[in-house]
């Protein structure tokens, strides 16, 4: 009985702790990360985020940054926003 207490009591205690997997705060943090990366992407291309018109005449680097932002934002919505919260 003592061996059971030593080996499994800590595991039972950890199992009782509720898991938090995501929610609005996690989504906001994730989106902040995405926006920080896209601003850096634009700056690396010599552009300023928010000033380039998304049109066929936009520089290829801006379009690539926008695609990366869209992918990152979609991932945030899938992982952080739609994850269950306690």
UniProtKB/TrEMBL annotation:
Residues 1-22 form the signal peptide. Keywords: Signal. This is Cysteine-rich protein. It comes from Mycena metata.
């Amino acid at each position: 009985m003592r061996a059971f207490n030593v080996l499994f009591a800590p595991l039972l205690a950890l199992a009782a702790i509720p898991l938090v997997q995501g929610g609005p705060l996690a989504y906001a943090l994730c989106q902040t990360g995405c926006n920080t990366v896209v601003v850096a992407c634009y700056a690396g291309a010599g552009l300023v985020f928010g000033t380039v018109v998304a049109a066929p005449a936009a520089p290829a680097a801006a379009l690539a940054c926008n695609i990366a932002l869209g992918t990152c934002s979609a991932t945030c919505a899938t992982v952080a926003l739609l994850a269950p919260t306690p």
